[in-house]
Design goal:
Strand order of the largest sheet: 2-6-1-7-8
Oligomer: single chain
Number of strands: 8
């Protein structure tokens, strides 16, 4: 690989402070406005190189799923991971002081949006005309402290953990900013947008959002919750202190046993998903049989089946995304998981059985 313009050699002297900041919160909480203002302030006051990566700007428009998050969760997960792969391309170029090359298995639209985002913030520029898929790093990207701010909802802790893993892999600073905004305010702001989300999407995300929790997750210790709108000088100082702390204390590549145990639980949650699916199917089937034996009316049987299947789908999706049912437990026991499901199921069944009396 060729050295970047103005880059320090990997073994030479020069700033090595680099960090990733996850900016999370509900849709229309004011994240993008806050991120742009933060980027300007850090460039002007601190002289840092800052890259704000807004997922809405980089990832393609995908049809909204009225039952939940913006595209179907499995598709959205793949898009997020692809963007993190491109981000890793940029980081390795910065760390090694080399030009950045386009990955061969890229999605052209996402890659071009990513490149445009970096160019607009003076982090890279195009190489020679005979090498259109190669990009040189701007001098500021390799000669100054670099902070990359990732702007998205990140409403599951597992989404943010993917970014933490990237920070750990390259020994980068890592921190989180949660923009706390009342649900009603988000709904009002969303309604004023030219491309508004369905209100159900924001309601659903509001129910499912998992705020940073340093007490339960050691990797979230560099986290700050700020109120929206947040423009006070005190808030600015708190944010700057958080970012400085992250830069000065990069994540170690080898974590302690507690961190390894947390990863083991996440892997375990993936392995148990298939067994849980089979178990919940049997529970729903048995419940429907009991409802028929109780002579629940045909129309109510149909409604009951719809509710139970919806509950099962939502429950499995929560498990798949790695939310509190599995990842926050010290151990993963299928009986504990199904017991929680059965409690929710019983609340639904009671409505229909009581209609018979």
């Amino acid at each position: 690989m060729k050295p970047a313009a103005g880059a320090q050699a990997p073994g030479g002297a020069g700033p090595r402070e680099r960090g990733l900041c996850v900016l999370c919160g509900l849709p229309a909480a004011g994240k993008s406005t806050f991120a742009r203002a933060l980027g300007r302030r850090l460039r002007q006051e601190r002289g840092w190189a800052v890259g704000v990566l807004s997922y809405d700007d980089v990832l393609p428009d995908v049809p909204v799923d009225p039952e939940g998050a913006r595209p179907p969760p499995s598709q959205w997960k793949m898009l997020r991971q692809e963007l993190l792969k491109y981000l890793e391309c940029f980081l390795t170029a910065v760390i090694n002081g080399c030009q950045m090359s386009a990955p061969p298995d890229r999605t052209e639209a996402i890659w071009e949006n990513f490149i445009t985002c970096l160019k607009d913030q003076d982090l890279i520029f195009s190489s020679a005309l005979d090498a259109p898929s190669h990009y040189l790093l701007a001098k500021t990207a390799v000669s100054r402290p670099l902070f990359l701010v990732l702007d998205d909802n990140f409403y599951y802790q597992s989404m943010r953990y993917e970014v933490f893993q990237l920070a750990r892999k390259y020994s980068l600073g890592f921190c989180q900013l949660f923009l706390d905004c009342p649900l009603e305010t988000c709904l009002q702001r969303n309604g004023q947008r030219s491309q508004a989300l369905p209100p159900e999407v924001i309601y659903t995300m509001g129910r499912k959002v998992e705020r940073p929790n340093p007490e339960k997750n050691a990797w979230e210790h560099n986290s700050l919750t700020i109120q929206s709108p947040a423009c006070s000088s005190e808030t600015s100082l708190e944010v700057t202190d958080l970012l400085l702390t992250a830069l000065e204390n990069p994540v170690k590549n080898v974590e302690d046993n507690m961190e390894q145990k947390e990863m083991d639980r996440i892997i375990c949650s993936t392995n148990i998903l298939h067994k849980t699916d089979q178990t919940l199917r049997r529970i729903v089937s048995q419940t429907m049989k009991e409802a028929k034996d109780e002579q629940v009316l045909p129309n109510n049987l149909k409604l009951l089946a719809e509710e139970l299947n919806k509950l099962k789908a939502e429950f499995l999706e929560d498990l798949r995304q790695g939310n509190k049912y599995l990842c926050f437990q010290q151990t993963t026991d299928l009986s504990d998981v199904t017991s929680f499901f059965c409690n929710e199921k019983d609340n639904i069944v009671q409505k229909y059985f009581s209609k018979q009396h």
